[in-house]
Design a protein that fits this description.
It is a multi-pass membrane protein. By secondary structure, this protein is mostly helical. It has helices at residues 2-25, 33-37, 54-78, 121-126. The chain has 4 helices and no strands. The radius of gyration is 36 Å and the shape is elongated.
Length: 127
């Protein structure tokens, strides 16, 4: 499974570099616009748009390969090793944090709490 993932990743990188190179080599449609308004002799505003040439078809093929590789890598990353998608992410399920139980004697058992003042039984009975 690791071999397939690496193969798809290499294919994706090569197709990305091919797209970059093919786009940079192609002639832009807006490049003839200055010639049509100025001294150039252009047939239309943005130049003649005939059928797609070799560079544009190659760019479309490289883009298709790139997107297919991207979908394949996304599928492989979610279904790696038969784990459920919720268990394979960076945030995994943990046990809930439970607060410690407070003793029955109240605030006197809590560390750092002020001691409770309890009146003696004889003083309470004399009032």
């Amino acid at each position: 499974m690791q071999f397939v993932s690496n193969l798809i990743l290499v294919l994706q990188l090569l197709s990305a570099l091919a797209i970059i190179g093919l786009v940079l080599v192609q002639h832009g449609k807006g490049a003839d616009m200055g010639a049509s308004f100025g001294s150039g002799a252009s047939g239309s505003l943005f130049g003649a748009t005939g059928s797609a040439n070799f560079l544009s078809r190659s760019t479309a093929v490289a883009a298709t390969i790139f997107f297919c590789c991207t979908l394949g890598l996304a599928y492989l990353s979610n279904h790696r090793g038969g784990l459920a998608p919720a268990d394979s992410g960076p945030i995994q399920r943990t046990a809930p944090i439970v607060a410690p139980a407070v003793p029955a004697s109240g605030a006197a058992a809590i560390p750092g709490a002020a001691p409770a003042v309890v009146a003696p039984a004889s003083a309470a009975a004399s009032n």
